[in-house]
Structures are given as structure tokens and as C-alpha cells.
Amino acid sequence: xxxxxxxxxxxxxxxxxxxGEHVSHESICVLNLSGETANxxxxxxxxxxxxxxxxxxxxxxxxxHHIRLDRLVSDDGRRIPKNTPYSVLVESDRPIxxxxxxxxxxxPEYTLMTTIPYSD
Length: 120
Hints:
It contains no helices and nine strands. It has strands at 4-12, 18-19, 22-23, 25-32, 38-46, 52-59, 63-68, 86-104, 111-115. Strand 2 (18-19) and strand 3 (22-23) form a beta hairpin. The mean pLDDT is 92.
């Protein structure tokens, strides 16, 4: 079995900058090789506000899923705010592999950053 059930992403930030069809955003990239569909819960933490809960995604067995954080809507209709630092707790009922990517279009030369989150 590959992957972990809990992942932590300490550095999150989405600028509100958009240039044409390119939008600054972050994605949580998931690979599921567990044998069953993974049900994923995300909790977003802020420096000076209560956590944002009720964000969900799924990833079928032997599939990848790029969860665009700028498109997620919580159970109560909230979104992750732009221009606000945050962190994310990713919890899955099946082991998954997780990678985080950020596309930043605030400069003339776009930047793509990717990293593997922390998992114990």
C-alpha cells in the first residue's frame, strides 16, 4: 500500500491576480493506489480566523486528482480567501500520495512551485 492518510501543508497563499485565462492558484495533487476510492477532507487554517471546514474531494483507485483550491466550496458555501496566508490539513480514509503546486501569475514571468507536504 502506498501513501499516507494525513498530510500537512504549512504554506498556502493564492493571489487574486489573473492575466487573461491564467489565474494564480494552488492545487493539491493526489494519487490513489489504495484499491478503493479515497474520500478526502480538507481543513484550512488561518493566522487570525477560525478554520474553514467542510471541504471535500474524492479520488478513485488508480487515478490522480488535481484539487484546485480556488474552485473548492465548503458545505456552507465558503471559499478559501485570496491574498490570505493559510495552511491545510488533508485527511483521507485511504492512503494517498499528495503534492502541492502553486501557479503565481503576479509577475511578467509566471512562477510554478511544487513541493511534497509533511506526513508523519
